[in-house]
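Sample entry copied in:
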Amino acid sequence: MMGSSVQLGQFRKCLDASMHVDNPNGLGRKRTSTVQGRRAERRSVVLSNTVLDFLVHRHLRGANKGTRPRNLSMHDFLSILRQRYGFYVDESPPGLSVSSDLLNRNRALFERRLRDLGLFVGVNDAEAMKRLRARFDIEGTDDV
């Protein structure tokens, strides 16, 4: 017998808690904006540096303890992000139309963030040469 505003408030609380909104290691950010003269709260998915670092190392790591880290191309990593997590970086999501200029800019920004974190190696524009690498040595493996 709760009203709709109470239910909506509980749903927002649940969403904020599950995404760790506004936490340093969270997946979401909350901001306020004005829509038609009314104040509204907006939430968006943001891949923080910590999350990017985790995702890259998670997929570089071998399945078994003591195995060498696997090679991971940028193309394969973007495919993993799409298929496993639903993060569309260089393609528009199904049912949405996004201009190719925006998608190319988004991918370039994503690559720059990975490079700034020390996770991305690409010496030229050739897609085959763009690879991800571990920022630190994985315990129990030989140097790569």
